Amino acid sequence: MSILDRFRLDRKVAVVTGASSGLGVSIAQALAEAGADVALGARRVDALQDTQRLVTAAGRRGISIRTDISNPSDCQALVDGAVAEFGRLDVLVNNAGRGTSVPALRETPEGFQSVIDTNLNGTFWMSQAAAQAMKPGGSIVNITSIMAWMTSGMPQASYMASKAGIIGLTRDLAQQWTGRRGIRVNAIAPGFFKTEMTGHFFDEFLAAQLPRVPAGREGDPMELAAAVLFLASDAASYITGETLIVDGGRTIH
Fold it and tell me: Has 159 been annotated as catalytic?
């Protein structure tokens, strides 16, 4: 296998959650361009169809399945659908997530729990379902955030707690599954990428943060997708339990 071949995903099958918008779209497209068939999960099936068209335009097969990852049954159905359609599962990208910006003293139990249920619990339910279907050589890539280490200046207790939890979850699942099941588990912590979720406050927020970003700009979604591809592929076959920061240098300040 040549060095470039290690980045290929030919004859492999990937599941991407949160694939209806934002970074999930770019991730699904990149995996398809690298050779994978892709099962797409999100709550908005109509928007998933647009992502599926990008997968097929890359010459790969895609399916769309409505998925609320806070529901373990939905997670199992997404995995089962991928295996039924494509015959196997090799890669899971836990990209789905949500966030709020509520002062801690005004945060409700329901609001806090809903973020944890999606970002942290949903990552676990998807990983659990996928690991049962994967054979040795599988790879799970969790999307956390640099907000696991640093404050954005906005009140985001539930979001930051959930993203920090994903890092701990990644490390534990890696130690449980890499040796015993041959499944690598890693995470990626994006910095500032403009998405549907961040769009309403992004420009003002970025203007305040940009002086602290050595790269001097926001991230391009395909730069994040390339990092996901690296960890998903055999190019990262000796990497597990790690969190790769993709932030233009923001966290070095």
Answer: yes
